[in-house]
What does this fold into?
Amino acid sequence: MDFKRVIKFLPMVFSLFVIVVYTLIYQLTPFSAFFNDLATNLLTFISAAFAASAVTLVWLSYSKEDMPFAIWRSFAFGFMAWALAELVWAFINMIALEVPVPGPADALWYLGYAFFTHGFVRQYRLTYPIQSRIVWRGAALVWFIVIALSLAASGVGQPQGFSLALWVDIAYPFSDIAMLVFAFGLAWAFRGGAFARPWLSMAVFALSDGLYAWLVQSGAYAWSIEAGNPLTLFVDVLYLTAYLIVGLGFLSQYHLLKDMPKIRIRLDNLE
Amino acid sequence: MASFLPNALIQTPTPLSVLLDQFREEKFTGLACTGQAGALRLQAIFYAGDVKAAYLISQDARPVRLDDKACAHHLTAFGALPGQTGKLPAYALRLIKLFTESAGDGDARQVDTADIVSMLPDWQSLGSPSLLSFHWPSADALMYLPGRGSYARHSVFVAGARAEQEIIPAIETWSEPTCKIIRHAPIAGTPGWHEYHLHLAFTAAASALMTRYEQFGGRPIITDLTNQMIELANLHDWNIGIVGNKVFERHLFPNDRQAARAYRALLSAILSHSEAVLGMPRTLAMVTAFYEQSEVLVREYLQGYDLVPLNHLAGGG
It folds into this structure.
């Protein structure tokens, strides 16, 4: 049996295992309410930590002199911030039940977005022969649109007034759309090549996370809890799966750096 | 016409026919000349024991490069004569081919050794390329200047068994006070000219593409590509070295067709690797950017010999 293939296969088995265990605990609630919550929160944190570990492996595969080093460092810091946010959120949730918005976890999630933006900007500068300030201005414009749209959606200038908590929550799906656009642009740029994989997984991650945030913000999640239908399960599993997908995408990049495809050149084709 | 590097050659009493066997056994790389002074002479360039180019040199006419059949005939005809031999690296032999095929008697002048380096910019700024040969009583040097302000592309300094690629430091420290410099005008279109410029185009393209590829992929990617290229070169006995992202060709091909075939394979390796990792669009963008930045002559050779075989890649056209 090819040991390398087994090693590459293991994270996929792990991811499926996490999803199955999460779904079973969610549906069957085999423990007390406290331990059910603890287990599901822990699995969410493990998934986020898996993504952070995978991207850190990619980052550490490069040396400081390599241009991708700074790019992957930004993504590693971003996912570390998100994994920490999951842990903080879970801790508050277990202790106080109600997690305040905005809270320390939100600060960490938005810090993650800042790191991701920095990583994307550097990758775009490397990918296209565009001046640095133009890329930064493009990123700033995208974030201006995100802030403007989320402010508008959270009731700025409307009679009921502005709510910071609402704005922080509503900005998540818009921020995820920005990440989706950035990531998809890179997946498109590297289409057909192995380098497209991490960006494609990042795009899927942003889409899943954005869908989760939108379902929560639209009230569909709360309605589903009351109605007792499986939408909440779908939404929560989607959130967890997003981390696992992006982790697998980053691991494929790590494996690529460690074990490149063999090229075959036939001289008779080159006459 | 004597050799361009007389100080690299040692007189030997052994006849050429015996030397040929020795060369094959030793995998000799260098130059051998035979014949009588003032009469017809044979100059043969050896790489790894095999003759890669041979010339008939007469006092009055331009040297004639011999084809395989004529080469075999003249090696036999001159076989009983003793000659001069000198071990030289491939880069020196490539220059000798260029000089031998291009130059007649050039414009000669006697200068102080100490003034040579300060005179080089005058030749560099000329509108046409210059082939310079430098002769001291016990050392010689060759230099090719492309003109239009470009720096020397290749050069060699020899003094007995010592051969150096960077000639300026060697000239600066050379103790003989006066030097005879001859400027020859290169003749475009000779086989040696094509082989030399093919080599230039290949090394420029390979080095530039690897540098850009490393920016995307970093050292892990480029280390793997380097290993795969070296493996490919070893498989075909091509003496190619890669240091950092710089590609050094230490091989000497017998003709432009064989050289182009090897270069195409090596550039194909870079592009196939890049296509698998970066995808075709970024690989094409990398090649396009290189074409836009490269010199006209380099571009002409890359296109003329189809050295960047994008159509052989999976998605290319």
